[in-house]
């Protein structure tokens, strides 16, 4: 009743407010009577020329600014290449619509007075395949905010707790700064270190490959990319900040960034050190190593996904609640330099070190037709990692027709991991089948070099191009490991085994290749592309396992493995492209021939395989207007088995979880369809993004499980007939200017159908996930803002062999963040997250409230100093929970996490005195200056 009353009251208030509004409309043309689409319409306050409202014209040049207050305005229109048009508007008391008719804008040369516009706050524009957000329209009241804080406010963009960015349902792979790489391809180095107030625009697009961008023929290779366009004053000066904080429980955090940009040169320095789980960089190398170390040590169960992508069963969500305790250190330089009009260098070096402690309990129920099995494990890990990364990209234009691009990445990684665990498997009747106590250690280093050289040539005939790329990759890994395990097997008799082993592994990988592409114009904006690619990948692995007995060590031949593999790929294809004003079409096909020659030296066995596949592709883009786009893609791909998956060698690093290869494994063949629709309404600034992605895989590779009488699991890759996956995502965002608010809603749904193989018996699995996100933002000038969001996910899993094993669980996250500036020199920030993990099937529910707040006092000239007192995790909730339902199991993991601590931090903002142009007060309105 109360809710209905409030809704009715709100509706009546809206009707009354609307009744007092007016609409301004018209049509824009040039002097030749040609419509002017996407022209900028501004409604200004005639007293101080501040921006009150904003809009764009549609494809026919028509514009309409609705629901604005009945008062006097200065109406202004701008269009590239034409003189601005201004008009004073004075509505009558009874006027509800002002029709300006057809406005014909004159060429730039007829402009009598120069006009400078500052502070344009157009929220969103769509330019072909790029969505552009004006940072000024979404900026946060939070002082010293970073780019990540800005991205959280953009419609259709989400930032996970670990800093992973998702835009329109897809993960962002790269963040650029003014169109140039920033510390290689690590998005977090930009989003978690650059200040938000340095950004003018955020551009979101799918970055094509260098070859596709050059030739105009789409090769299907894309990276979801964000480009940060800096403010003009930041491009011609220095900016950055430095902070240092100390807290209770020996907590500390320090970081600094300095950026010096000038014409033709960009220089950035980053540095950080903390033990409060704050990562300003990605740690993929660390994740790769820990997964490899667990496999070598044999720890942990195997996760099986019905989409055929098998991953480790203990995913670590770094930066979130499941991260344990982590100390982070890092620093590096980013240097971009334009030597002249022909030569440009983009380069970066970054070093990071991690020290990680994790305490984790795992409870897992495996569902089988013969009865459910339970796996329980308690593990403690201490891992360290040091990583060096060097990236360089050198572009050189030989002449107007030829250019070169040389790209090189060099990494060096040192790792050390120690784990102790206790685990057991329980039978369906609750009795213990087996148990294990294990201690494992592993250390090693990896050096990787990847380099490529791209040559591009344009012929005199427009559209005719030739390009080629040569690549070289070298990886060298040395790793030592050891395990001490006591395993007990229960049954008619109890058997106890003790393993004391060490292992040494040396892996060398060399690869090289080349590809060629030729495009030929056919006339009428049609093109033909012919391409050919060759790649060779050679591996040499020497793994030796030794049984230890006192000071003696004996080679364990069954567990050791020496092999070499030689993969060769040949692929040729043709693509036909039509490139019209409103649409473009690409259809084509390729033929791929693959050869594998493997030599299992200790087994005196060879594996020789050859595969041939036809890979068609089709793409269709249609631009209804500059703000409405449709895209449909179809492509095929092949997942060929690796030599590790093919070789019949038992890996019993974990005696309770054995694994072996399958020489009869066949390649998986996938068809992928993707439909994408983008719409931005320039009249009311609402936006709508949606996509549907469907994948159908034949001969999908999954992992079968066979259990011995002692409940030891043996995992083996096998082919199943088919897997399907359909994912949909839709995001709608709209502002309510009257309420100074913006609403956003995102709906997602995923349906997967796969095949589970247990004890050689196949059964179908169906998994459905539905959910969505609601977001609300309110901002009052530069004083107060609040963000509210709710993220809900419902996942159900249906098992054909046993409906009683069906799983249903919910993950819910409710979040709030507010920022308040008061008494001129004080600010308050508060965040609250309420995490709910609920399993209906197992009657489990865990709620974790997380409350943080800080208060700041600004000091020094231009508020360049900030003294901040922070309380993190006020309610002292020091656990993290994750739960997963997959092919034949339900799993819950509980990890340690940071508890409550207090911290005092001093922040010094450099850009407030290094840039005279940057000293304009926050919130300065737009001004029009007439000369």
From TrEMBL:
InterPro entries given in the database record: Beta-barrel_TonB_sf, CarboxyPept-like_regulatory, OMP_b-brl_3
**Record bears the keyword Aminoacyl-tRNA synthetase:** no
- Residue ranges annotated as compositionally biased, kind Polar residues, are 416-439
Q: Write out the entry's keywords from A to Z.
A: Cell outer membrane, Membrane, Receptor, Signal
Region (Disordered) location:
416-448
- What are the record's GO terms for cellular component? cell outer membrane
Q: Where is the signal peptide?
A: 1-19
Q: Where in the cell is it found?
A: Cell outer membrane
Determine the domain of life of the protein's source. Answer: Bacteria
Q: Where is the Outer membrane protein beta-barrel domain?
A: 457-738
Protein's name according to its UniProt entry: TonB-dependent receptor
Its taxonomic path starts at: Bacteria, Pseudomonadati, Bacteroidota, Cytophagia, Cytophagales
């Amino acid at each position: 009743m109360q809710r209905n009353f409030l809704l009715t009251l709100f509706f009546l208030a809206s009707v009354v407010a609307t009744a007092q509004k007016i609409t301004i409309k018209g049509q824009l043309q040039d002097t030749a009577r040609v419509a002017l689409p996407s022209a900028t319409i501004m409604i200004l306050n005639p007293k101080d020329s501040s921006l009150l409202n904003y809009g764009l014209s549609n494809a026919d040049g028509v514009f309409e600014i609705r629901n604005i207050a009945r008062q006097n305005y200065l109406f202004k229109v701008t269009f590239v290449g034409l003189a601005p048009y201004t008009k004073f508007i004075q509505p009558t008391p009874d006027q509800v619509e002002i029709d300006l008719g057809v406005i014909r804008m004159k060429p730039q040369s007829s402009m009598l007075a120069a006009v400078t516009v500052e502070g344009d706050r157009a929220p969103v524009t769509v330019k072909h395949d790029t969505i552009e957000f004006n940072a000024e329209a979404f900026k946060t009241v939070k002082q010293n905010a970073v780019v990540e804080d800005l991205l959280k406010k953009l419609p259709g963009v989400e930032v996970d707790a670990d800093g992973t960015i998702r835009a329109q349902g897809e993960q962002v792979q790269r963040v650029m700064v003014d169109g140039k790489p920033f510390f290689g391809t690590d998005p977090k180095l930009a989003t978690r270190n650059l200040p938000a107030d340095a950004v003018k625009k955020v551009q979101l697009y799918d970055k094509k490959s260098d070859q596709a961008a050059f030739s105009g023929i789409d090769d299907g290779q894309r990276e979801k990319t964000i480009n940060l366009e800096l403010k003009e004053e930041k491009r011609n000066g220095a900016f950055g900040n430095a902070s240092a904080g100390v807290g209770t429980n020996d907590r500390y955090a320090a970081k600094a960034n300095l950026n010096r940009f000038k014409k033709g040169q960009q220089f950035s320095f980053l540095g950080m050190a903390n033990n409060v789980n704050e990562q300003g960089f990605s740690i993929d190398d660390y994740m790769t190593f820990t997964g490899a170390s667990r496999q070598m040590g044999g720890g942990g169960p195997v996760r099986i996904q019905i989409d055929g992508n098998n991953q480790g069963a203990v995913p670590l969500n770094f930066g979130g609640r499941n991260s344990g305790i982590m100390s982070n250190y890092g620093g590096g330089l980013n240097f971009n330099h334009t030597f002249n009009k022909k030569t440009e260098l983009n380069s970066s070096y970054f070093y990071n070190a991690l020290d990680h402690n994790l305490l984790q309990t795992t409870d897992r129920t495996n569902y089988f037709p013969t009865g459910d099995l339970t796996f329980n494990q308690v593990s403690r890990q201490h891992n360290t990692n040091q990583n060096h990364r060097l990236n360089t990209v050198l572009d050189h234009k030989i002449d107007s027709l030829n250019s070169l691009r040389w790209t090189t990445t060099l990494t060096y990684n040192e790792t050390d991991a120690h784990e102790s665990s206790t685990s057991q498997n329980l039978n369906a009747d609750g009795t213990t089948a087996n148990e294990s106590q294990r201690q494992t250690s592993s250390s090693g280093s990896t050096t990787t070099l990847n380099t490529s050289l791209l040559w591009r040539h344009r012929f005199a005939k427009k559209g005719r191009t030739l390009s080629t790329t040569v690549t070289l990759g070298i990886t060298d890994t040395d790793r030592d490991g050891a395990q001490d395990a006591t395993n007990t097997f229960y049954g008619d008799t109890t058997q106890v085994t003790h393993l004391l082993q060490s292992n040494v592994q040396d892996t060398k990988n060399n690869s090289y290749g080349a590809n060629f592409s030729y495009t030929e114009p056919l006339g009428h904006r049609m093109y033909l592309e012919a391409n050919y690619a060759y790649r060779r990948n050679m591996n040499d692995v020497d793994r030796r396992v030794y049984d230890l007995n006192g000071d003696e060590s004996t080679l364990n031949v069954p567990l050791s493995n020496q092999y070499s593999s030689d993969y060769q790929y040949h692929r040729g294809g043709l693509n036909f492209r039509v490139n019209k004003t409103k649409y473009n079409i690409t259809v084509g096909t390729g033929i791929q021939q693959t050869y594998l020659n493997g030599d299992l030296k200790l087994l005196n066995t060879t594996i020789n395989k050859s595969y041939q596949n036809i890979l068609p592709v089709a793409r269709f883009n249609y631009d209804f207007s500059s703000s409405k786009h449709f895209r449909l893609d179809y492509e095929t791909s092949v997942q060929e088995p690796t030599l590790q998956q093919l070789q019949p060698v038992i890996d019993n690093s974990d005696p309770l979880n054995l694994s072996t290869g399958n020489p009869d494994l066949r390649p998986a063949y996938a068809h992928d369809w993707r439909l994408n629709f983008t719409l931005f309404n320039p009249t009311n600034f609402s936006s709508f993004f949606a996509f549907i992605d469907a994948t159908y895989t034949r001969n999908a590779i999954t992992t079968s499980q066979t259990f011995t009488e002692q409940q030891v699991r043996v995992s083996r890759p096998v082919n199943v007939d088919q897997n399907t996956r359909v994912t949909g995502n839709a995001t709608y965002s709209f502002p309510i200017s009257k309420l100074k608010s913006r609403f956003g809603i995102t709906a997602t749904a995923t349906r997967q159908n796969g095949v589970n193989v247990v004890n050689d018996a196949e059964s179908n699995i169906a998994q459905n996930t539905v959910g969505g996100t609601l977001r609300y933002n309110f901002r009052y000038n530069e004083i107060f803002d609040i963000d509210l969001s709710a993220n809900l996910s419902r996942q159900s899993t249906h098992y054909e062999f046993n409906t009683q094993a069906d799983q249903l669980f919910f993950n819910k996250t409710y979040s709030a963040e507010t920022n308040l500036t008061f008494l001129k020199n004080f600010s308050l920030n508060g965040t609250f997250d309420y995490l709910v993990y609920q399993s209906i099937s197992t009657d489990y529910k865990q709620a974790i409230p997380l409350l943080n707040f800080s208060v700041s006092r600004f000091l020094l000239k231009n508020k360049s100093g900030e003294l901040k007192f922070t309380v993190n995790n006020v309610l002292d909730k020091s656990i993290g929970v994750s739960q997963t339902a997959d092919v034949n199991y339900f799993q819950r993991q509980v990890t340690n996490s940071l508890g409550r601590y207090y911290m005092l931090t001093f922040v010094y903002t450099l850009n407030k005195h290094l840039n005279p142009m940057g000293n304009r007060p926050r919130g300065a309105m737009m001004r029009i200056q007439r000369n």
